[in-house]
Amino acid sequence: MTAESPEAKILLELRDVRKWFPVKEQGFVGSRQVANIKAVDGVNLEIYKGETLGLVGESGCGKTTTGKVIVKLEVPTTGQILYNGQDIYAFHTKEDEMYFRRNVQMIFQDPYSSLNPRMLVMDIIGEGLDIHEPKMSKRKRDEVVYDLLDRVGLETYHAMRYPHEFSGGQRQRIGIARSLSVNPELVVADEPVSALDVSVQAQILNLMQDLQKQFNLTYIFVAHDLSVIKHVSDRVAVMYLGTIVEYGSNNQVFTSTGHPYTVSLMSAIPRPDPRRKMKRIVLPGEPPSPINVPSGCRFHPRCYKSDGEKCIIEDPPMIELEPGHSVKCHYPEL
Amino acid sequence: MEPLLEVKNLMTHFFTEAGVVEALDGIDLTVYPKESVGIVGESGCGKTQTAYSILRILAQNGQIMDGEILYKGQDLVTLPEAEMRNIRGKEIAMIFQDPMTSLNPVIRIADQMIEVIALHRDVSALEARELAIDALTAVGISEADKRIDEYPHKFSGGMRQRILIARAIALQPSLLIADEPTTALDVTIQAQVLEIFKDMREKFDLAMMLITHNLGVVAELTERVHIFYGGRVAEVGTTFDIFTKPMHPYTIALLESIPSLDVDKGRLATIPGSVPQLINPPKGCRFHPRCRYAKEICSIDRPPMEEKVPGRFVACHFWEEVEISDLAEQVLGHKKKDIKKPK
Q1: Could you tell me which of B4, B1, B22, B5 has the C-alpha nearest to residue B13?
Q2: Which of B78, B88, B136, B234 lies 20 to 30 Å from B268, alpha-carbon distance?
């Protein structure tokens, strides 16, 4: 389960991945590119088999784009993504491509817009099988769908219903069943509980943990909610403005926090405990636009530790504070 | 002390094609002057509709069926519409949930603020502009005298929320209703806005009604809490009591089911099922189908809202039997035995 065990196998690796979206200006004749939105700007990540990697950050930090690049919904501008050691953008055969597509699935944020309203639940869940197991008999396909419905806590008769007949939590269960229909290895879950009520959120988080054990899944869990990330993750990567600023095991990131951004994020969260009198670090300003990334350390304009010199000029390298725990900062805590 | 706002047995129904939605089914709620009160609940529990009923801005198919809304002793339910206009904004101001859609995108900030101020306060347009600039400065918008002439799209979500707070404050209302004011914002921006709320309350002696599902925000900003469930109030108490000695099974379940940054909860406790549909709500106690303490009576009789301990109102038949689980104990750091029950 954890990445620390020496036999842990790297399932997926991101090497200096960038995803820039061009900003175009409509000119007199045609359009020309005037800038780039640097949504993902040099991300290195390793995901071990069987673990849950939490990817956390504020809106616009590039966490969703990183997830999309991993499942090939977006093509990275530069960089490499290796799945079982193979570059996912340079497969030699159709079989390799299909193998990858089948083994890497996604759960989407909004359970209301991610299910086709005109398809029966049966076909929503079974669609992946139609593509990857075209020779499967109708009866076998039904069996697989019923089994999945059962595993995600729905009933067999739900198969013949349409998405609008379900609540948000139930829809998210359908989305989860769909992602598992082709028996994947890796599931990228993009904010799977952020649209749900608190009492339903706990149900879905528990379900995802149970399914991880049953199906030997590896999760990349993308979320903005630090408490959810702390609850589900084995390892955590904190993103800010397109880069990973801190990376380590759950314990390392949350108890011996190294990056000033992570420190302030944690202090910013209001705790449901009126006895707790905490000193809050309120970050000034807002995350800058990914079109105009600040010089030096991207976080320096908002950082309480910025020295006003080195931080403005020099982009800090990722330094390892302790084995497995890295921070992109000139003056890390600790 | 006389309450500033006292809602008694408020019933609001919505008439839809699918049937009558009993959105509010006997809400009791009080806000004292200068007090900050939290309204907590999940989606569809009636927290926003309570606010809309108070201001009488319900959707066309919604109607207040019964109850009183006493504001400074005056019943808002029966108040003529013309007089209601003097209450809205000037006496009771409201900040709506989504800062991105609460400002008109084609009108300058200045005009949107001056219009409201000039309408309610006896000032010239120029004075209104000065007041607007002061209010914007107070919520931390720099160069407010220049930025006031810009259009909403030039401002980020956090900045727009500040503008909305400024617009509400500029009329010096006695009560500010804030509906999920930080839900649409990132945590670091939320932290900034929370500080502004604290600041504003100190400066203007505001009473506040904070509607939210975020228990952390409530713990930080309010003195008293009403827990809503299925169009009714489940529990009322001081914020401290609600979080340290919850008495209603729903409140306890809610506190148990949220992941925590400070305590490792292992497996989360869950509340089975989902929030009730209010077209055909459960009979008796509306929480009974999901409650682990439910007995036969719970599906028949509605539990009365009673003051069980001074200052604590709980609507539950079996409130004395409710135990705090080990998990909640861990989170709350105490045992149920500590709670004194009146004999």
Answers
A1: B22
A2: B234
Q: Which fold has domain B1-91+173-343?
A: Rossmann fold (3.40.50)
Is any Cβ of chain B less than 8 angstroms from the Cβ of A202? yes
- Domains of chain A, by residue range, sit at 10-111+185-197+216-328
Q: What single-letter amino acid sits at B263?
A: V
Based on the number of CB atoms within 10 Å of its own CB, is A9 exposed (0-12), middle (13-18) or buried (19 or more)?
Answer: exposed
Dist. CA A202–CA A205, nearest whole Å:
5
Tell me, what's the ipTM?
A: 0.84
Residues forming a β-bridge with B314: B235, B306
* CATH class of domain segment(s) A10-111+185-197+216-328: alpha beta
CB contacts of A265 in chain B (<8 Å) are 187-188
Q: What angle do CA B315, B317, B323 make, to 5 degrees?
A: 95
Nearest chain A Cα to B265, which residue? A231
A259-293 pLDDT, tens per residue? Answer: 999 999 999 988 888 877 777 888 988 888 899 89
Assign residue A250 a region (left: φ > 0; alpha: ψ between -120 and 50; beta: otherwise).
alpha
Torsion of CA A107, A113, A118, A123, to 10 degrees: 0
In this complex, the residue of B189, B262, B265 whose CB is nearest that of residue A286 is B189
Interchain proximity B269–A202, CB inside 8 Å = yes
Q: What is the pLDDT of residues B298-329, one digit of tens each?
A: 999 999 999 998 989 999 999 888 876 655 56
